[in-house]
Amino acid sequence: MKSVSECANYCLNCKLKPCSLKGCPMQTKIPEFIMEVKNENYEEAYKLLQENNVFSHICSIVCPQEDQCEGSCIRGIKSEPTNIGILEKFVNEWAIENKIEYKINKNKSNGKKVAVIGSGPAGLECSIELLKAGFEVDIFEKDETPGGILIYGIPDFRLSKDIVRDIVDKIKYLGGKFYNNRALGIDFDIKELSQKYDAVFIGIGATKSSKYKLTDEEMADIYDSDIFLRAYRENKYPKDLGTVVVIGGGNVAMDCSRVAVRMGAKNVKILYRRDRQHMPAREIELEEAIQDGAQFKELTRVESCNIENGKIVSVNCVKTEIIDGKAIDKNPIETFIEKANTIVFAIGLKPDKNLILENGIELDDWGYIKIDENGKTNLENVFAGGDNTESKSTVCRALAAGKKAANGIMKYLT
Q1: What are the angstrom distances between the C-alpha of 278 and each of 142, 323, 326?
Q2: Which domains does the chain carry?
Q3: What's the pLDDT at 169?
Q4: Can you give the pLDDT at residue 239?
Q5: Which of 248, 281, 356, 405 could hold 385 in an S-S bridge, CB 3.0 to 4.6 Å?
Q6: Which letter does DSSP use for residue 184 in this model?
Q7: Which residues of 51-78 are buried (b: 16+ CB within 10 A; e: fewer)?
Q8: Cut 0.90: pTM above it
């Protein structure tokens, strides 16, 4: 493995900066912070990162750099890209070890008040930008702990919750007020908030699990990925998981498999209808899942499950193949059975369409909240961003959506 110095010196300091302008949703000043690392000015590098993105440490841990910043690196065209993620993580960890703190500057109050619904990455970033600009911000969170997916969706062995709590504390220091256990559609609606506040931001994410029917019976041993991950987070482990089958091939599927291992599952299998080359999960996430003990079976479609005495005993599978990038059943059909006692669906999350429509918000053709270039919805003073406005969003893309909406709100109100 390269040293930090070797990683930094490998950067060409490109004038066009595709890693920042094209690859990074937050447009982090990547060549600039790497130059400071080259010169061993780590505190200045940390300042550059934090000025643009106080979530920099989180991004260095969970972002798919190979698809974003490193995926746009000029050096990656003919060789290996610069290890941007490693350098960003190093700078943030150096700051923690050396007790370096970045103080966020705040403008004086402008008398405007904004409600933020949801405290995931988009909601937290939107709140920070607005607070810095002098707005009052109230954040409404349906759970008892702020952080959204950063708390409930990403396991602690991947992302320390102390890092998330530190950001929440920064928001409180800036004057942001959190109202936990307050859910849209139950405790309040959009109309109520839009009349009470100068603007409203919706960052509730995608909350409905994508799944399909495996049996006509109601089975307690078939889980949505978010419910399964939450059980791990809250230390409410399902008993006697037996052999766990995780359906899916994304990073969430990898997290579910690793969580299942830690919950004491006898065996863990990841069954995915595409092959390894066409799966959305990061290679490193799959490797870590396999290292933890999960088995990965590609080109496998789970069709149904078999039940004996009220318990799942196996799943019926169909062998698939990739034709023109699509996974289709092999012809002639090939079927087989895999042992299973617990099934976890990890094939994606979608916005709660009914909840959104009930609040008078328009959806696009794919079922996501329809917004303009400023993050504004069809409602007069209501903005949105994050997983409820686009598919396959990453943490960094959600942060960028929160920042875009915050700028849109500033433009709208000032």
Answers
A1: 35, 11, 9
A2: 4-97 (1.10.1060.10), 113-207+351-413 (3.50.50.60), 209-348 (3.50.50.60)
A3: 97
A4: 82
A5: 405
A6: B
A7: ebbbbbbbbbbbbbbbebbbbbbbebee
A8: yes
